[in-house]
Write a structure and sequence with these properties.
Elements lengths: L18 E4 L4 E5 L4 E6 L8 E10 L2 E4 L4 E7 L4 E8 L2 E9 L6 E7 L9 E9 L4 E5 L3 E4 L2 E4 L4 E6 L1 H5 L4 E2 L3 E4 L4 E8 L5 E7 L11 H18 L5 H14 L2 H6 L6 H17 L7 H7 L6 H16 L14 H16 L5 H16 L4 H4 L3 H16 L20 H14 L8 E2 L2 E2 L1 H13 L3 H17 L8 H13 L4
Antiparallel strand pairs: 1-2, 2-3, 3-4, 4-5, 4-10, 6-7, 7-8, 8-9, 9-18, 10-17, 11-12, 11-16, 12-13, 13-18, 14-15, 14-17, 19-20
């Protein structure tokens, strides 16, 4: 399953508790203060479906609430799973909660009972507090159904509707065929535990079309371990700290709702991030590219540079996918639109709107790319003059009187320099990295973005050994640095491009 991991658009807007696990569809939180799993969403960007889930036990007509007995609650690193340990009357229980990456509409709750040595039968009760306060609960053939939530049945299960207080008094309403849930009542799924039972398994499904499978928990757990092992292996060439971030990126990228419903009108930088994400995703996932999100961007009413960014990545992605745009009619059919946006983009650059340097660079890069698929003079007769003018103005801004770039943040613009000036600047930068550290620094800090851009420029211009050395040093420092360094979209983009150029993806 070749997918890039996405978290940089909206992830932190949904953090409302101590921890989060998500598979890109289901999301839930652990409230460490109250020791409960809460805010469960069947679709991550829709409203909560379940307010909270808890585990209770009933032994000898007494109710024990696991939240009062927790000895440890932890997120299992890299496995997208919670592990909740608790000790009741000297017996050790462990409950695992997994948002499946194999069947993304399934939430699994498994309680390990292998260390429980109680004599006689006892019961586990899963308390489910749905957001929908009233409604009809149905005892269906294979599951218990409430508000598009399907709780898998087994031969030892039954459901009660009651309040927590009434549960302790054993004042219960048993679900037989159907039952109207009252305000204040909770859903209690009771499981009768027989002697020598090693564990109990509850599955909640949030989409009936995804049928609940009958699988052992050990099989599901193994599937998840294999999934994350394979996921990490794809990014083995990235710094270790970034691999952890890439795991998280996968979770939101895999959500179809995210890809089609993100608001792209929150600024051009955010828009560019989304286009970069789509491009990176195509590098990783050429054979399974889903153009739904990309198509959504096309029909947004942005003109000028925003559309030029779109066209730029559209062509790059088409090339990655082996689409011959010289034969495809897509570009030819939008020549009037291309002309309009090139004119508007030039006007924005002339007026120095927004990040005009980046816009100037992308404008020229786009025209070069466009020339590979169509005669650009058919698009706009003055296009060569306009491109030269934009490039000239940018170059005069980034070079000093010695024809050397004024700062390392301008490295990416070096592609527009004449060959002789480009070589001079490469020589200057290579001298700057001829130190024991071996990379560009500022105030004793590694400049990750600048070094990654330099590694790309060097690789593109045949300085393969020097490029590899810089990339290796950057990855070394990133893995071994104790300083916190923000992982931005641009860094991920540059890491992936460096790896892709070397044929490692």
């Amino acid at each position: 399953m070749k997918k890039i991991l996405l978290i940089f658009f909206s992830f932190f807007s949904i953090l409302r508790a101590d921890y989060l696990i998500s598979n890109g569809e289901i999301a839930l939180f652990y409230d460490g203060k109250n020791n409960i799993i809460k805010n469960i969403r069947g679709e991550i960007y829709h409203s909560d479906k379940i307010a909270n889930i808890e585990v209770f036990l009933e032994k000898d007509y007494k109710i024990y609430k696991a939240r009062d007995y927790y000895t440890r609650a932890k997120y299992v690193e890299g496995k997208n799973m919670f592990e909740l340990k608790y000790n009741i009357l000297g017996q050790s229980f462990t409950t695992y909660i997994i948002a499946s990456n194999i069947n993304k509409k399934n939430l699994y709750v498994y309680t390990d009972l292998s260390k429980v040595k109680w004599n006689g039968n006892y019961r586990i009760l899963y308390k489910i507090s749905p957001i929908e306060l009233t409604g009809t609960m149905v005892n269906d053939k294979y599951d218990y159904v409430y508000d598009n939530m399907y709780i898998q049945k087994d031969r030892n299960s039954q459901v009660y509707l009651t309040t927590e207080n009434d549960l302790e008094k054993f004042k219960l309403r048993l679900l037989e065929t159907s039952l109207r849930k009252r305000i204040g009542e909770r859903i209690f799924v009771e499981k009768k535990i027989l002697p020598n039972t090693k564990g109990d398994f509850l599955t909640i499904n949030f989409q009936k079309s995804n049928l609940l499978e009958k699988k052992e928990f050990s099989s599901i757990l193994n599937d998840e371990f294999v999934f994350w092992k394979d996921q990490d292996a794809k990014f083995r060439f990235l710094p270790k700290r970034m691999i952890k971030i890439m795991r998280d990126f996968y979770l939101l990228e895999s959500n179809d709702y995210v890809q089609t419903k993100l608001d792209i009108n929150r600024g051009k930088e955010n828009y560019l991030n989304k286009l970069r994400y789509t491009y990176i995703n195509t590098i990783i996932n050429k054979d399974k590219f889903d153009n739904s999100f990309f198509s959504e961007l096309l029909f947004k009413k942005n003109i000028g540079m925003e559309k030029i960014y779109y066209y730029y990545y559209f062509i790059k992605i088409a090339k990655l996918r082996g689409i011959d745009l010289t034969k495809d009619k897509t570009i030819k059919n939008i020549i009037p639109e291309l002309r309009e946006n090139l004119q508007k983009g030039y006007e924005e650059i002339e007026n120095r709107e927004g990040n005009w340097k980046l816009n100037s660079y992308m404008y020229c890069e786009f025209i070069d790319l466009l020339e590979s698929v169509i005669d650009t003079k058919v698009v706009w007769e003055n296009i060569d003059y306009i491109k030269d003018d934009v490039a000239k103005n940018l170059i005069s801004e980034i070079l000093d009187s010695q024809n050397v770039i004024k700062k390392s943040s301008y490295i990416k613009y070096m592609r527009l320099l004449p060959k002789d000036i480009l070589k001079e600047n490469i020589d200057v930068l290579l001298k700057k990295v001829q130190t024991p550290i071996g990379v560009l620094t500022e105030n004793n800090r590694v400049k990750y973005v600048a070094n990654l851009q330099l590694a790309l420029i060097l690789y593109e211009n045949g300085y393969l050994v020097q490029s590899d050395k810089i990339l290796e040093r950057v990855i070394y420092f990133y893995n071994n640095s104790h300083a916190k360094d923000n992982i931005t979209t641009e860094k991920i983009f540059l890491y992936i491009e460096n790896i892709y150029y070397r044929g490692l993806l």
